[in-house]
Amino acid sequence: MRVGTILTTANEDESMDQMTAVETITISERINELAELRHTKKVMEADLSTLNKEIESVEKNLMSDMDDEGIGQTKNTTGSVTINERVVPHVKDWDVFWGYILKEQNLSYLHKRASGAICAEIWSMGKTIPGVEPYTKRILTYRET
Question: Does the predicted model carry a pTM greater than 0.85?
């Protein structure tokens, strides 16, 4: 539902035939627009999730076929593929890992990001954290009704 129409011109000296209509949008209409966009996003994300699973399956089968044939790279008329390997960390025991980090006094094993939950807890007790300041991030929460 539109609230109304506002007629506007660039300045007061313009004639009425140079005026343009600008429709105002209600908050309710903006909520409806947000709902539509979020629904579309949810459908697209579900489609993307399905597509990613299919891609992962094809990649796994392709690598298996290439391993069976003893090849690390190949191509056809649509593209080329190469199997690459890299070693990545997989923490099996966080308590042991933390002990090692503290013993070595080397925090570079971790990503540089503060935990929002623990910082909020410390701040709620009225304490400060050196080098860190609270930042209020504004977000809009939407729930379907």
Answer: no
